[in-house]
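Hello again, I could really use a second opinion on something today. I owe you a coffee for this, so here goes:
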Amino acid sequence: MRFSFLVENKTDNPGILAEHGLSVYIEAHNKKILFDAGATDLIIRNVEKMNIDLSAVDMAVISHGHYDHTGGMPAFCEINDRAPVYIHKNAFRKSYGYENGVMDKETCGIRWTDEEREEIENCLIYTDGPVEITEDIWITGTVMTDDDFVPTEIFSYYDEEGQLVRDDMSHEQCLVIREPEGIYIFSGCSHRGVLNALRAGKSIFPGERVAGLIAGMHLYSASQEDRQRVVDEIAGEGLDMVIPVHCTGIKAICDLKARLGDSCIVATAGDTYDSDR
C-alpha cells in the first residue's frame, strides 16, 4: 500500500500548498482511493505537482460531513464523474461549532451549493453500517462510542422541525485496509474519539493486529490528562506506524512523537509513504 497526503494543515514540500483540511490518496489492492477532499479545490493544484491522476481514482470515501474534508469534492467530481463517493447518510447536517460558548455564524458542515450537490448526487453512495469494498478494504460506517464518551468539541444543527439539537457526529466513519502485516485505519477527525476509531477499525477484522493509524485525532483542545490517556493506549497497540495529522494539535503530536519515536511520523501535504516504509 502507498498513500500520499494531498491536503494537510502544514507542508514543507516546495510547490505544495497547505490548508486547514485533509485529503489522502491511497493505492492498495489494485484500487485507487481518495479519502476526503480538503476544504477547497486545493487538491487539484497539489496533484499536478505530485503527478497523481485523479481521473484514475476508483472510489472516494468521505470521513464525515464537515467542510474541511468535503470542500474539494465538487472539483474532484468534475475530473472524475465515475468514481462512487461513499458518504454517511447523516453527513449533510448543517452543523455549527462554538467559540467561547457562542455558536458560529457559518456552518462547519458541507458547504456545497445546491447545484454542486445536484451534479454530484449520482455519484453518492450513502452509508450507515459497515461496507465491504473488497475482502481487504472496508468502510466502518458510524464509529460507535461508549456511553461515557465525552467529545473534545461540541456541534449543533437544526433538525427538520427547526429545533437546535446536538450533533452526535454519527456521520463519522473510517476506512480500513488490510495488508499482510496488519490493518491500517484512516480517520478524518476522530470527533467520536480516536480510540473509538481505533476500535471501529479493529471490529472489522477481529483478532488481527493494527499496523497503522493515520488520523486526525482532534486532541488540540484536549486536556493533558486526556492526551496522555490516548497516547498510552495507542502506544500499547504496538503499531508500526502512527501518523497524527490535521486536527490532532501540536501538543498531542509532540506527545506521540516523544513516546513512539520513529514509529510516529509527522506528515505534511505532499508526503508519500509505503506501508512497509
Q: What stands out?
A: Helices lie at 42-50, 67-70, 73-79, 114-120, 194-204, 224-236, 250-260.
